[in-house]
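Example record

One chain of 70 residues, shown exactly as stored in the release files.
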Amino acid sequence: LAHGASLLTGARARARGCREPIGDAGARDLAEALKVNTAVTSIELNGNEIGAAGARDLAEALKVNTAVTS
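Predicted structure tokens for this chain:
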């Protein structure tokens, strides 16, 4: 995903080990991936400086992704 900041695995999506927060652009990219990825069940995004636009993108993606539960 954008900035190389997010790691998607079969069970988790976590932004970690990055030098820069993913911000709204990374959140938008993650949202697009979540729309089609049903293997990810958990996302942890604290400390990634996601603003209102990124939060909206993620919220829209989570309306169609029923796999993410936490």
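Notes: Residues 22 and 49 are 7 Å apart (CA to CA).
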